[in-house]
Input
Amino acid sequence: MHLYYAPASPFVRKVMVLLHEAGATDQVTLIPASGNPLDPGTMPLDRNPLGKIPALERDDGPALYDSRVICRYLDDRLGAGLYPAAPRLWEVLTLEATADGIADAAVLMRYEGFVRPEPFRSSDWMEGQWAKIDRALSTLEQRWLSHLNGPINMGQIALAAALGYLDFRHQSRPWRAGRPGLDDWASHFALRPSMMTTAPQG
Ligand code: BEZ
Output
């Protein structure tokens, strides 16, 4: 299999952590790719018409895209067990969607600050994205800590990738303040070898 890959992407990191946790990094060849809303870069649009990274070329069918689809496919193919059976599945998928929403808003903020030409940047729009992140983090702190402390699953991996991206690109926003449970969980999860070897770069 071939994975279109960008080392800073929290969505790529989800896939990479899954591969490390499953002991299957040797089954995927990484192909560096780039792209953003103003420049399709090198991501082949015939693999993902949305131009987004990651995309997975597989041996047994057309390319897959969207990290949630790729992670579900790899978990099934590798028997990684990162998605439990229902009814716990619904909580893991909701946690994964919440984490991906945090990462989405954080990446859009990065594009606004570094890709959109300076005269067109909107601080209101930027604060609107941060408000989503802030709300989601507070909900996780208030209601999700018991889920985070259960056996490893794809929701936890997605959240660790999203929080790692906040630390990487948005250091000026102290998301840990007033969230001791999330802070403690993220610090411990970050010590897993799968997390340490996939730290964002770029
Ligand atoms: C970044 O450089 O922050 C980035 C790169 C690719 C995808 C998402 C984010």
Observations:
- Strands lie at 2-5, 29-32, 55-58, 61-65.
- Residues 6, 8-9, 53, 107, 110, 169, 202 surround benzoic acid (CB under 6 Å).
